[in-house]
Known about the structure:
Helix content: 55-70%
CATH superfamily: lambda repressor-like DNA-binding domains
Number of helices: 6
Number of strands: 0
Shape: globular
Amino acid sequence: MQATGAALRYVRQHLGLTQRAFAAQLDITPEHLSNVENGNGKLSTSVAARLQELWNLDIYVLAWALSDPNSLPPSLRAPAKALRKYFNQILKANTADIPVPPETAGG
């Protein structure tokens, strides 16, 4: 599940959130988030659903789209690139709307 963890980190970084702030948005601990991002924990279906609810992201499709293009058959490289572009647009559009939990503001 390293691809899923890498995709989760990609989302967090593109949203400009710390692990603590992102974990608060996902209703998980920062430690669990760190474990998932580093491939040492599994992403639960409830967290995947929360990503879908908050940012309209399917983390599993994003993980596939972020995979090494050279590992994909040539016929799938263009669709993967289009999906990466689509997800980047979603993340960019959602960045301004992210509420910052009070305990993470300013820190």
